[in-house]
Amino acid sequence: MKYQFVVERRQQVSLWLNLLAVAAALIVGLLISAVLIRGAGANVLESYKALLEGAFGSKEAILESLVQATPLIFTGLAMVVAFRSKVINLGVEGQFLMGTMAAAWISMNFSYLPNLVLIPLLALGGMIAGAALGFIPAILKARLEVNEVISTVLLNYVVLYFLSYLLSGPWKPPYEWLMQTIRFEESTYWPNFFESRLHLGFFIGLVAAGFLLYLLQRTPFGFELRSVGENPVAARYKGIKIERIIILALLLSAALAGLGGVGEVSGLHHRLITGISKGYGWTGILIALLGQLNPIGVVLAAIFFGGLINGSVAMKIHTGVPIAVVESIQGILMFVLLSAQTMVHFKLRRIEDAE
Amino acid sequence: MLSEFLNAAFLVALVAATFRMVTPILFTAIGLLVVNRGGIVDLSTEGVMLMGALAGFTAAYYSGSLWLGVLVGALTGGAISLLTAFLVVILKMNQSVSGIAINMLAAGLSFYLFRLIYGSSGETVPTVSTFDPLPIPLLSEIPVIGKVFFSQYALTYLAFIMVVLVWAFLYKTKSGLVIRCTGDNPRTVDTKGISVNLVHTALLVFGGMMYGIGGAFLPLVATGLYVPGISAGRGWIAIAIVIFGNFRPFRVMFGALLFGFLDALQLQIQGIGIDFPYQLLIALPYVLTIIVLIIGGKSSGKPLHLGIPYHRE
Question: Out of A40, A150, A328, whose CB is closest to B239?
Fold first, then answer.
């Protein structure tokens, strides 16, 4: 009997198939990344072992991985909000930095307030600052049809240079050699937990994920947001004001990013430093996709990636692989993951020839 | 008298610098224009420029040949765009997301490979001696104009020649017509028996080579050394410029010149030492690019099938 294979599009992709794609992408991604580790002249198995132990090998390691995961939870959630409404917010990096600047400004000017007032004030300030930056591309897109991909990216550079300006003069104490602010008063600190660097930001991140899950699944706004993302034409027929949803989605996305920035300042560094974001906004894209655009998934993906960042330090010490390998693994995972997730939409079907 | 002379010298330097600063963006924007006209959105420009810059610099550093550096930069860009082609042509994935993925992949790799090749100690910064300007005989002798237009770098001339070539190719040849049709209505092209996938792949590879040359220009002409993130958003600006240029070669060139002028202006102002924070000056072109996007917001020349994957059935 003669037969041939044809490629067909699946009607629906089950959750399990999607998770299988994620698992396959992780495995393939780490296999490809092994080439980079070999390229650094290191033993691959030893390197991955050092990475794993450095990431989750002890209680201290796990806590530090959660510290590294914290900003990624926020940027990942920010990307989920954007992606769910089909708004491509590439400005999460800049919005995150706005959050750090707001936290620094509040910390420098209102440190006389009691800690219990400052904790929520800092959070609020960061969210407003992030959202303020997000408002520019939002209104430009909704009112003037300016492509948000470009406007959000360009604003990142503006914010980055502005921050660099602040840290080179106005916010830098004269005696300071490095580009950073003074160390802030203890009244501005977000509390730490488990005698580690793990801070309130992580738990706020968990709450934010829960809140977002509720918002997306159980509220009219969440329904409208998803409708706009899934089928804007149908959404318009349902009477949803698309422009309003786009603006609100970008504001929410940017506010989450800003809140993440506050955590890094008020929970971790207690000062504003150069390079406070190590590209968290960009990693957030991968986190959101790895997490299947689901808030719970984002938390898991962020913890995985936090482990990768944390473990890369141990790997550097043990086998000498540059820490920059994380950036490469991130790019490779992104490529492999997207390929895998697209491939599961297709299936091979055997058809028998009539003859 | 003296101030007048200074002003004239300042202006000549400013315009000459404009043409220098515009080169990397012009290469990238013209490459992207062709890709866009074929109907494909490509957001990978920034990352590909970075890889082109690193590969081009490394080839020049180890071989001593700057032109080999340009070639390697172009080939690297083309090779990376093959990955873009895999995602958008074979898998028919969302083109914006694919572009972002390739952008992250290329940027991440450039960061890691730089550390791997040159280490992170920073004790000796590897440098190459950059291209010399190539004054065109006779023309460069003309006062002022010669200095501004005809004492540039070979790659700068090439970028402007590419604008004319791309225009002639798109509007005066049959292949150009096919490309424009692919961007507007791929089905008609398919009906004619021309493979849309092949057209798209070829365009992406061409585009990638152009981004690669644009990237390689930075270390090989502008700076003489490679620093991580050297393209500093020029890939993104090129995307904005193509939109502003309404997907037309000469308007894109005009948009690129506008940006190059602003970039040159901020450099010259830094150079004469006005007491103004230089970070805010550097940020200026980015702000103006956003404003330019607002002005050119409604793109009537946008290819009709831009960004929509083409399915055969």
Answer: A150
Q: Is residue A303 one of the residues assigned to a domain?
A: no
User: Is A168 at the interface with chain B, CB within 8 A?
Assistant: yes
Q: Residue ranges of the domains in chain B?
A: 15-119+136-295
- Best of A93, A101, A150, A166 to substitute, by most chain B Cβ atoms within 10 angstroms, is A150
> Is the Cβ–Cβ distance between B200 and B87 less than 8 Å?
no
- Residues A32 and A84 placed together within one structural domain of the fold: no
pTM for this model (two decimals): 0.91
Structure confidence at residue A235 (pLDDT): 86
Q: A89 and A33 in one domain?
A: no
**CB-CB contact of A89 with A152 (8 Å):** yes
Q: Please report, in angstroms and rounded to a whole number, the separation of the first and last CA atoms in chain B.
A: 73
**Cβ contact B91–A342 (<8 Å):** yes
Q: How many domains does chain A have?
A: 2
pLDDT interval class at B116 (50, 70, 90):
confident
Residue A155 at interface with chain B, using a CB cutoff of 8 Å: yes
Region of residue A124 (phi > 0: left; psi between -120 and 50: alpha; otherwise: beta)? alpha
Residue A3, phi then psi, degrees to nearest 5:
-150, 165
Instruction: Please enumerate in sequence order all residues whose Cβ is within 8 A of that of B12, keeping only pairs 6 or more positions apart, or say none.
Output: B144, B147, B148
| Residue B32 structure tokens | 């992207």
Contact assignment for A329 to B108 by CB distance below 8 Å:
yes
Q: Is the domain of A183 the same as that of A134? A: yes
Q: Same structural domain for residues A85 and A226?
A: yes
- Structural domain boundaries enclosing A122: 71-293
CB–CB contact A342 B112 (8 Å) = no
Q: Any CB–CB contact under 8 A between A334 and chain B?
A: yes
Residues A343 and A217 in one domain: no
Alpha helices in chain B (DSSP H): 2-37, 45-63, 66-85, 95-118, 145-149, 154-172, 174-184, 186-191, 196-217, 234-244, 249-272, 278-295
| Position A307 in a domain | no
Residue A273 lies in a domain: yes
Residue A319 forms contact with B (CB below 8 Å): no
> How far apart are alpha carbons A138 and A247 in whole angstroms?
5
Identify the weakest region by mean pLDDT among A72-76, A121-125, A290-294: A290-294
Q: Is the ipTM of this complex over 0.85?
A: yes
Name the CATH topology of B15-119+136-295. ABC transporter involved in vitamin B12 uptake, BtuC (1.10.3470)
Q: How far apart are CA A333 and CA A32, in angstroms?
A: 9
Mean pLDDT, chain B, rounded, equals 88
Contact call for A161 and B282, based on CB within 8 A: yes
Identify whether A305 is part of a domain: no
Residues A174, A85 share a domain: yes
Query: Using one digit for the tens of pLDDT, what is the confidence trace for B274-301?
Result: 777 888 888 888 998 888 888 875 667 7
The residues that bridge with A273 in the sheet, in sequence order, are A180
Whether residues A284 and A344 fall in one domain: no
Residue A31: CB atoms within 10 A of its CB come to: 12
Burial state string for A201-224 with b = 16 or more CB within 10 A and e = fewer than 16: bbbbbeebbeebbebbeeeeebbb
